[in-house]
């Protein structure tokens, strides 16, 4: 479904740059540093090579097939770039460039124009105004992204509307020495949607837990249907920002999303089995537990402790979350009496 995006055999960069720290340079360096197993094709009409790789004047000049193309050029040139990608047979594009629906009427017009070109050729569009994807599978090592955290392989997959929040989540995971499986930050999400990405993660056998950050749902019914299906197989841990009127306005200006004041999101999450969080650090730690432990089959929780106070605190927390702390059975009590000091 989204294999051309997450498992590309060849990546082209339209707008590849010789300037260090520019996005068109950093993505190539990241692919090289992460050990990408596929072909990398810089596209730059003014340079013979970029990052030590042969550069091509246009995508049409690339000799091999291209699955995925990054587009890192001014917004007014993107529709034509999509047209050229279609003629080349590119299957998916990541538009890192900004200047579309988040910028008003002219940006919306450009976005509609490049989307029309993409649909004409059957190209899937990731973004625009986005970071990109990461696939930590050692057989691929695709770092199609301009961040600077290089995750080790793991079983937690992340999807974040905001690249800044996504990068923070990725860094927290890395700081805790927790591996990651797949990562995606899709910005304006004009085509490839968060529900599609969640569905893809749900079908990925190596993903055991999914972390989601979003600021709104343009297609809430699609999200509900997909999330309900996926949570039956693996946990989704979610953080929805823009819950207040001021936050919703900030979300709209951020990615051009249709977020509105959203007081019912957590109730919806609860209904379909999505676990809500307000703190990304807490969400990451919970994901670590879900990815490394069997999924509980019920709500009964036992406590093992070497002192009483923490057990009292833990009991309060568990009860607050509608969990049950069962009483010890007679056989367990008898065994403890036989093996412990009387004072215990």
Going by CATH, what is the homologous superfamily of the largest domain? Succinyl-CoA synthetase domains
Distance between the termini: 58 Å
| Shape summary | elongated
- Annotation, overall tally of beta strands: 14
The radius of gyration over CA amounts to: 23 Å
Low-confidence stretches: none
Indicate how many domains the architecture comprises: 3
Mean pLDDT: 91
Helix content: 25-40%
Quickly count the helices.
12
Structural class: alpha/beta
Helices and strands, in N-to-C order?
A: HEHEEEEHEHEEEEHEHEHEHHEHHH
Main sheet record: 7 strands, mixed
Reported CATH architecture of the largest domain: 3-Layer(aba) Sandwich
> Roughly what fraction of the amino acids lie in strands?
15-25%
CATH topology of the largest domain: Rossmann fold
Strand order of the largest sheet: 9-8-11-10-12-13-14
CATH classification class of the largest domain: Alpha Beta
């Amino acid at each position: 479904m989204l294999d051309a995006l997450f498992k590309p055999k060849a990546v082209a960069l339209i707008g590849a740059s010789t300037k260090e720290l520019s996005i068109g340079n950093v993505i190539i360096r990241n692919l090289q540093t992460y050990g990408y197993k596929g072909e990398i094709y810089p596209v730059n009409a003014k340079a013979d090579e970029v990052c030590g790789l042969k550069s091509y004047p246009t995508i049409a000049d690339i000799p091999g097939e291209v699955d995925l193309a990054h587009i890192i050029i001014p917004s007014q040139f993107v529709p034509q770039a999509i047209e050229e990608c279609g003629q080349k047979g590119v299957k998916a594009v990541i538009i890192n460039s900004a200047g579309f629906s988040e910028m008003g009427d002219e940006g919306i017009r450009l976005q509609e124009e490049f989307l029309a070109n993409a649909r004409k050729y059957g190209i899937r569009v990731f973004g625009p105004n986005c970071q990109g994807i990461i696939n930590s599978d050692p057989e691929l090592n695709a770092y199609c992204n301009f961040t600077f955290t290089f995750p080790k392989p793991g079983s937690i997959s992340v999807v974040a509307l905001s690249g800044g929040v996504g990068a923070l989540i990725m860094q927290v995971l890395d700081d805790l020495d927790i591996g990651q499986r797949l990562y995606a930050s899709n910005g304006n999400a004009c085509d490839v949607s968060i529900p599609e990405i969640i569905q893809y993660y749900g079908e990925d056998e190596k993903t055991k837990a999914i972390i989601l950050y979003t600021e709104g749902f343009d297609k809430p019914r699609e999200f509900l249907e997909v999330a309900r299906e996926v949570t039956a197989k693996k946990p989704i841990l979610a953080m929805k920002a823009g819950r207040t009127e001021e936050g919703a306005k900030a979300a709209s200006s951020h990615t051009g999303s249709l977020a509105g004041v959203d007081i019912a999101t957590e109730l919806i999450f609860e209904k379909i089995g999505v676990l809500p969080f307000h703190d990304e650090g807490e969400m990451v730690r919970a994901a670590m537990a879900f990815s490394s432990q069997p999924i509980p089959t019920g709500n009964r929780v036992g406590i093992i402790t070497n002192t009483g106070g923490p057990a009292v605190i833990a009991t309060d927390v568990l009860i607050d979350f509608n969990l049950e702390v069962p009483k010890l059975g007679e056989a367990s009590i008898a065994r403890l009496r036989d093996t412990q000091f009387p004072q215990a």
